[in-house]
Design goal:
The protein is α/β, with parallel strands linked by helices. The chain has helices at about 50-55, 70-80, 80-85, 110-120, 155-175, 210, 225-230, 245-260; strands at about 5-10, 25-30, 40-45, 65-70, 90-95, 125-130, 180-185, 195-200. It is globular and about 55 Å long.
Length: about 260
């Protein structure tokens, strides 16, 4: 029998989880985007200090779920001993592994951690993703923002997308024997589609926001430039080919800077 896991994100399309019965185990990311019976939930995953701060202050309640905590929540637990004693029984486990391609825990968001945990720790054969709109659209809205403030300025949104999308690509590449099923209202991925990826498309029209140009779309970089970046051939001071327009040049330069930081 297949080992099937479901990871419920906090984006607009998370509601597709409710379109059918979903046999398998369910992981949440921080807070659920809608009410879910705790008996359906294996655990909720958390990676941020701000979630720990909000829980400590009593601003949010997640006592009904068991927790899988990343690197920074683990630090928080050890530094806030009273909080740890209060909630130790909710901690299912710590999962502090951060793959090299993520560089550091800051880049490794809650969704990344949940999917990586399902594949690496639980050896999932199949992982379904709902509400991970940033893989498809320039859409950073999250239900968590209703409870905790986040920087959603345009510049920061681009920065996060440029960090997050390559990590998604690399997770899907790392677990090439796992089938990933992404649920959305269109199949125009902003990362390369690999053989182990499938998109289930729901018959919902695209919004005007989804139609806008996304300059963080990894699929719009020419293959030869992606190969050069992968091989670290584009470095600081090296000339970007002049036949690309200004926007394309900015994309290439940003991608090259990101690759240099991995050295």
């Amino acid at each position: 029998m297949s080992n099937v896991w479901h990871v419920l994100g906090n984006g607009d399309k998370a509601s597709y989880f409710n379109e059918a019965k979903r046999p398998g185990k369910l992981l949440l990311c921080n807070m659920p985007p809608f009410e879910i019976d705790p008996r359906q939930v294996y655990a909720t995953c958390m990676v941020d200090f701000k979630m720990m701060m909000a829980l400590t202050a009593g601003e949010i309640q997640l006592d009904m779920y068991e927790w899988i905590l990343g690197t920074r929540p683990r630090i928080w637990m050890y530094e806030q001993s009273n909080f740890y004693l209060k909630y130790a029984h909710r901690v299912k486990e710590f999962y502090t592994h951060v793959p090299d391609y993520a560089v550091n825990p800051t880049n490794f968001n809650c969704g990344h951690m949940a999917v990586h945990y399902a594949c690496n720790k639980q050896k999932a054969d199949e992982v379904h993703l709902y509400g991970f709109d940033t893989i498809f659209d320039f859409n950073m809205r999250s239900v968590t923002d209703l409870f905790l403030s986040s920087d959603r300025s345009q510049n920061n949104n681009y920065r996060l997308l440029n960090n997050w999308r390559p990590i998604w690509r690399d997770i899907f590449k790392e677990f090439d024997q796992t089938k990933f099923v992404l649920h959305h209202n269109h199949d125009e991925l902003k990362i390369p589609k690999l053989d182990n990826m499938e998109v289930v498309v729901y018959n919902k029209p695209k919004s005007k926001a989804q139609e806008r140009e996304d300059t963080s779309d990894m699929n719009k970089l020419p293959p030869e430039i992606l190969e050069q970046i992968k091989n670290k051939e584009i470095n600081k001071g090296k000339e970007i080919p002049l036949n690309f327009n200004r926007r394309m040049r900015r994309r290439i330069e940003a991608a090259a800077r990101k690759q240099r930081k991995k050295r």
